[in-house]
Every structure is written in C-alpha cells, then in structure tokens.
Amino acid sequence: MTELSFAKTFLSSLDSRPLKLQPDYTANPKTVELNGPYTLPKMPTPFKRATPSGLVDEAAQKPSVLNVTLKSSRNPVLSLSLPSTDLGTTVLDFKHKVASKLKLEGTEKIRILYNKKPAGDVKTLKELIGDEPLQAGQEIELGVMIMGYKEADVAKTEDSTMRDAQGETSVAQGPSGEEVLGAEEFWADLKAFLMQRIRNEGKAEEVFNKFKESWEKR
After folding, report:
1. Rounded to 5 degrees, what are φ and ψ at 108?
2. Is 48 helix (H, G, I), strand (E, B) or coil?
3. Non-local CB neighbours of 129 within 8 Å, separated by 6+ positions
4. For position 59, what pLDDT does the model report?
5. Other CB atoms closer than 10 Å to residue 218's CB: what's the count?
C-alpha cells in the first residue's frame, strides 16, 4: 500500500466518526452561520436582587402611596405631613407645598434633602427611595432647607398680598411735589448723586447748575 492510498483510507475512516472539537477551539465569526439569537429560558422563580440589607424580591408588590414628612430643624422650623403621597410625586411638587406653607413667592431658595443630600426637581419619590424595601403606610422623612430665609421678607410679602387682595394702593408719606423741589436737601442730594455718577466735579457742577437754572426759570 502506497502512502497516498493509506492517507485516503485513513481520511475516509475519520469521516465516519463523530466530530470532536478541542477545548481551545475557536471559530471564525465571519464564516460561522448564525441560526438565530440564543436567549436564556425564564427562571421558574422570580429573581432576587442582593442589597446591603439582604435579598429583595422583585416580584413583591410595592405600595403606591407613602406617608411623607417634610421637616426642617433650622430657620424656619417646619414639619409638614403629607399622608398618602403618590410615588410619582416629584421634588418640585414638594417645593411648591413648602412654598405654599411658608407663603414664599417662589421655589428657587428651597432645597429638598434625602439622606442629607439635595435632590433634583425632576426626581420622583420612587427614584429617591430606590431599592429600599417599602411597606404600606411607611413614613418617609425628607429634609427641607431654605436658602437666605428671612421672616421680614415673608411678612412684607404677606402685607403686600393682603393689600392687593383688598384693592388698596400704597400712598407715599411725607412731602411731595413742589414742596420737595423747594427744599435745599433735594438739591444737595441731586448734586451728590451727579458727582457720584459722573465722577467729574466740573461736569457734575455744570449739569447741576443748568438743571437748577432751568427749573427756576420755568
């Protein structure tokens, strides 16, 4: 038997045997035909995700509402209870409630804190809580911080709102009109103002004299 005939016989005997691949075999992805994507079968039991406090069952039903308390221990001292608050309530909604409670004009100076960290306006209550296990009727406390809060400003806003509601108009107190222009204090204040704005003594004096002469010759 020649070498060629032996090789042909050997190769034909290998074709009849099942194909076996080595453990380190790799196929060229450009030449391998894909029959379709392979997906893992669904697990018979719900997946439980690990958290620092243990395993959380993803299939567990979370409550749709919670009792929320907005609390501030600094000026102004505030404790606002919001029972049965929907998990979709945003931080901006909480700011509006605080502004309404404290009678503030806007929400720019209000900060809502969760775990001592400020939260963005678009975040919802559900996003703030995250993976923490929830129970029906559970109470969540959110911190409140008012930047530059002054009770005088609030009192001024309340007074202005009350007067607007009653249709009252503010009236200037003290001298007015011709009486003011005839007082030496007015001309002294005007001269000082021109000196401050023009920053040139000669030009300020010229403007002041022309204005005063024009007024006296009217």
Report:
1. -65, -35
2. strand
3. 87, 140
4. 45
5. 5
